[in-house]
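Case study 2.
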Amino acid sequence: MKTALIICDNEVLNSIYSVNLKTYTELNLIFESSLDKALIHIEDPDVAIDVLVTMASIDGEDTALLAYHNCIENDRDIPSIVIGEGDLIPDENHIVKNQFDIPGIIQNIFKSLGMNPKEVLAVITEDLYEMPIRLFFPFKKAFCDTYYMLENNGQSAPTKIFDKESDVWPKVREFLDQGVSNLLIPAKERFAFTKKVTQLLIESMEQITPETPQQESLDFVEQSIDAVAEQLFEDQEVTKEVIQLSQMCMDTMEEVIEDVPDLKSLLKDLAALKSGFLYSHSIIAGYVSTHILDNVEWGGDAHKEKLKFVLYFHDMYLVQIYKKHPDLMYEDKLIFDPNITEDEKEIIINHASEAADAIRRYPGCPLGADVIIMQHHGTPNGQGFATSYKDDISPLAKVLIIAEAFTEEIYQKIENKVPVNVEEIMEKLKERFTKHTYKKIINTLANIKI
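Prediction:
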């Protein structure tokens, strides 16, 4: 079997190259992340290398040029394929300018080795379904063939990154670290996949103890919200597994919010987890609303229990929107984004009403939780976003509205790299929420721990 030495420091690319080169070339593959590590193989005459595939440069170093010269110095006549562009790439090398041009890379390998070309990257004809990347975290082995949508010369095409039963870790975390939000699986596997991930998450949540690190607990809850969202509004009947996982997550959210010393600690952990905006803002709003209920005169444990349920479910209809547009943030601005389709605008406008209708069939739904969910953007019927906030909505809905508004102000400060000043935020909120009942809630934020 012939051997290819690949020099690339991007683990997402390495994962893509690995699956496709194994599938289409049947080469033995050696991956190294730097020239120094690759030189160990190049300088060892006992290591057979039939083709070198290297990035043009890594960390500002002319990797392709230096690798080429080292091959000459070690009397190694190894054909080279360079990925990327640069002024110092030797003419003798084959060049593939686009790092995602998998067919181009493979065809050049065939050409370099004098092999008969195979049909490269046959078109995938089966329907694929996007899944949030965190839903792959509970698996040690891939549940099914898994794909990533590659952009190549302005066109999108799915390419396989995991074969069924292949190792998922640590590559799946590296994809997330590179900014990948979703992976794709065959659509026919969708429900079996979500059922299995629900089971795995329940097993993981059962292992949580008071000693479990906060980050780990937050990570499990985010994975679980994605899993529940994939099932809750699709099936007419809420399964006992979904109910069990939801309750475990609500309890964990409550424990994290109660135990966290301050808002800064929570934000730090969510940032470290690279949590999506929809989840992060719900967790922060949970912290803020708990503080409000501890300080407002009529607040109590029963209200906290109800709001815990609401916070978990209130934005689940938006999961599909943020799954497709992971870089978007504030809900009331979503419909003005040019990338949002008309159908998606309808979902955004009606998400509170739809979630309230759906949650009514959830066994054990707290009395009035559906009303709070419906009114959490200030409209009595759950449609659209209020521009002026009146007194015709539930007091707990007002708490959630202020908590989310305060949360969004914090995120805007962070985004603009401006220090968080609670007094300034309170004044701004009072200008927006002019009714006395809202201002009383805002006043409770004066002593919140940032």
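The longest strand covers residues 155-162.
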